[in-house]
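Troubleshooting entry. Yesterday's outputs looked truncated, so today I'm pasting the complete records for two proteins to confirm everything comes through intact. If either block looks cut off, that's the bug. Protein one:
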Amino acid sequence: MASPTYDTLRYLRGWVLGSSGTPMRGVVAGDIAVGAGPEAMAARRYRPASRNRPLPGWLLLHGVTRPGPDHPSIVRFAAALAGAGGDVLVPDIPAWRRLELDPAPAQSALERGLEYLHNDPLVRTGGVIVAGLSFGVPQALRVAGRVAAAGRVRGVVGFGGYCRLFEAIRFGLTGQFEWRSRTAYLRPDPYGRWVVAANYLHRIPGYATARGVSRALGRLASLAGDRRIMSWDPGYDGVKDELTSSMPAEDRALFRLFAPPADREPEPGPANEIAPLLAEAARSVHPHLELPRSAAPGDRPAFPVRLIHGRRDHLIPFTETLALERRLGSRTDVSATVTDLFAHSGGSAANPARLREAVRFFMALRGIMGLRSH
């Protein structure tokens, strides 16, 4: 059996090759149907081309993104895992590709994917590793906890997830987050608040007439997802003007709160006022967006959890992964790594601080690969 260190090196090799566009030798990918008939679930499966024994299974949940399984980062990640000797399944979640923040389709996809891999003789017994990205992290944890007793989960991995819905929404509107007893700031990616508002703005009590604003913000988010250009790019300003051209004045002001010109940020006062209203509306519509704040006595997940978050994540602040680690810490084997390895790409590779960060990040990946033999 390969060691976690060797597996990590193989993974990193695949990740680097994926960045250059070079086809990964020895990895095959194919679209499959999980189940039969009209209820079949579409998915993509990655695995080594040559295999003579069952391999560790991975179930990868893509985030709320228009490309879904076709997102370049998802493809690169899944292919690198397969190149490291894994059998990777990526379910397609159409609702999330439509930018609908309903957790139910993702939960169903995870449960069906776990059953499929559990029953496949080409997947190693003892459970698979469930990996969630961004919005998918709480859902990966929730479903894994629900089926862990059946022996189908070996571990859970989360990248860039959140713990507290309000804190994530407040950050998307204001860029503010709490760190070491002070309020810190990082410019937020507008995409996050556009998606949240598209789903829940008109669900706030008293905002039912704002459905047109929700639709306009949804169109803006969809365009950003299709173009794959950063949402604060000035190229979207003309689209914003077009979307507001036929709106009543009060709707224009509300739209501009979420989508001001690229060189401006939302007005702090109104942004801080509407953030808790959005969070409460989201909880009311979809109560399973967050993990429970407390567990029942004796409720201890039977699998380890490994979390990674970028220090300069502009969609969800890294403090949310640290909060998730604290919430799970008394109940399971959990560790979190915050990395700024990629935040200073222009720095010297010989810089001691960068070298230390690289070692920390490598050890975090090694911990993830170690779940395969946990």
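Protein two, checking that the full record survives here as well:
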Amino acid sequence: MKIKKGFVLRQLLGEYVVTGEGLERINFNKIISLNATAAYLWEKVQDKEFTVGELADLLVEHYEVDKETAFKDSEALVNSWKEASLLED
């Protein structure tokens, strides 16, 4: 899977948000807020193909978390990005 083109991560007033690039893509009801960990993962996989397992590996490398927890958290994050239509297969 991959993050769809046209979506960018921005930091606004200390918060991380994903918005559409260009006014025609912005739906202010659909701005997605990310915590610092999700923003870290977004930055690492932006413009790349990735799997849930690869996100989990990034979490294990960067944070003190076990592989099982990292995988579950990565899976939940991917599901939320899919629900928000931010990913393509």
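Both blocks look complete. Sanity check on protein two: The chain has a mean pLDDT of 90.
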